[in-house]
Amino acid sequence: GLELDYSGTSPYAGLSLRNTSTDDFIQNYVYYEADKTSNIKNGDVITVTASVDEGYAADYGYTIGVTTKEYTVSDIDEYVSFYEDITEDVLKDMDQQAKDAIDTWIVNQENWNEYKEMKIDDPKHVGDCFVDLKDGLVYDSWSYSFENAVFMCYKVKETFKEDGKKKTQDVYLVVSYENFIKYSDGTIYVDLTSGN
């Protein structure tokens, strides 16, 4: 037999081939090669070619039949490409984590600006923006720092004293989460501690 072992995340998954035959001839004399072993994504069609010395095959009583087979890649973990793929539960967890981070920022701002008698109200979530790396571009740490991201926008109202007068202004804060992955079982993963 032949096993196709995928590693990594679509569209950057890798492929290795594993000969699992218990037949000594096939194990020792048949070699497999895939036409693509890297940058693999769900939906790709991989052609695997078996090669064997026809003389050895004849000596062992084998005749050569089909030497290529196509496999369609499916069910490997993949980066999320659409905001709609992110579940409500994940969005709620992101929102809570973002509000906790903003609350910490608020306390620090109010303490640092104590002389201005600054007060900041609770954050209000005003919207999200989802971005996905354009087809043909490759996610790596040098060129593009993320494959996909959600930017969550919040509004707070600051009240403070300046030149003896009370002033109020709206402040918009953005918390981003990067590299959402849809596991092969359909669950969505994002590192909630990565929000910044």
What is the fold's blueprint, element by element?
Blueprint: E1 2-7, E2 14-19, H1 24-29, E3 31-34, E4 45-51, H2 54-59, E5 68-72, E6 78-79, H3 88-112, E7 119-120, E8 124-132, E9 148-162, E10 165-178, E11 181-182, E12 188-189
Antiparallel strand pairs: 1-2, 3-4, 4-5, 6-11, 7-9, 8-9, 9-10, 11-12
How would you describe this protein?
With 196 residues, the protein is of the alpha+beta class. The protein is 19% helix and 38% strand. It is built from three helices and twelve strands; from the N terminus they run ββαββαββαββββββ. Strands 7, 8, 9 and 10 form a four-stranded antiparallel sheet that branches. Strands 3-4-5 form a three-stranded antiparallel sheet. Strands 6-11-12 form a three-stranded antiparallel sheet, with no helix packed on it. The relative contact order is 0.14.
Q: How far do the termini sit from each other?
A: 48 Å
Radius of gyration: 27 Å
User: Number of helix segments?
Assistant: 3
How is the main sheet built? 4 strands, antiparallel
How many strands?
12
Strand content: 35-45%
- Overall mean pLDDT stands at 89
